[in-house]
Design goal:
Radius of gyration: 19 Å
Number of helices: 3
Shape: elongated
Length: 154
Amino acid sequence: MIFKRENFEYDSETGKLFKNGKPCTFVDKLNGYEKMTVKAVSNYCTHVIWWIVYGKKPSKVIDHINRIRSDNRLINLQEISKNQNDYRRQPNKKSASGCRGVHKRGKRWNVQFEKDKKVYRFGRFSNLSEAVDVANKAAKELYGEFAFINKSVE
C-alpha cells in the first residue's frame, strides 16, 4: 500500500521512502539505521514513516520486530516503550557468556535481570547451558513478548 503526505511517499510493502518521487534515504554508518534529511535535519526513516502513515510523530520508540534495522516495512514496525525496547536488546558483545542475563562470577554463571529498577536473581550454575536455559525462562516470565531469547549453548 502506498501512503502519501505532503511531498513524501511510502511503500508499506517494500519499506521504501521517497521524496518528490525519488529515493531519499541513506544508511547511518554508525548504527545501521536508515535516515533521511528533512529541512537540513537528519531524521530516522521510521519516524518519518510513522508520521506519513499515522499523521503524528511517534510518542514511543519505533522498534524493528525482526531486528533488521533497514527493514522499514510497516508490518515490521511497532511502537513500544523504551523499557520494552531495552528488554529486546541483544547481549553485549564483550559478555563472557554471549547471552543476556548470564554473567560469569568466579567459576560459576549467575543469572539475573533487572526490571523497573529492581534486580531479579535466578541462581548460580556451574554449567553455562543450564544457566542459559534458566535465563531464557526468566526473561519470558519478566518481559513477556519483548524478551530477548538467547540461543542454546552446548
